[in-house]
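Q: How would the structure tokens look for this protein?
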Amino acid sequence: GSALYVEGNLTIDKSRISDANAVYVNNGATVNLTNTTITNSNSDYAVSNDGTLYLGDDTFNSIILNNADGLINSTTYTVIANNETIVIDEGDNATVNATIKDDKGNIIKVTSFTVNVNGTDYTMEFANNAYSATVENLVPGIYPVTPSVVGLGANVINSTSIKVIGETSIALEIVKNNEG
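A: Here is the predicted structure in token form.
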């Protein structure tokens, strides 16, 4: 069934939960979910967190919502652009894509995720279980993409850079000498 944890510490281990919006961790609560399977249809989330949450070896078929007051204190992984350099031509916009997942690949949605490129912060928008932002107006060069994610205490970040390629032109002067 669904659970609401108001305060205190609770461990849920080796459980199967099949309700919509299955687990809600309230502000002030600490919940440790391990080896737990949550299957729910027509739900907004598997776990919604406003407290402190530890995850380990869980399987969910809906996302984990880490709300503004929530802290996920187990290892999470932020991967930007599949760890590949984003290459664009001068004048084009760069689309920066990213995912945030737990140790078993469950999708995490956070309330604050930005990337900084060339001194400008871009908000990463969440849609279709991934994040993206559009970076504009870069001149030729290489720009590190520096992420900032709120609410993840042990976040492993795999970042990238944007490489902007400018037009290359070489002026050639052809001199023809006719000798003899």
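The chain has a mean pLDDT of 92.

The first strand starts at residue 3 and ends at 5.

Upvote if useful.
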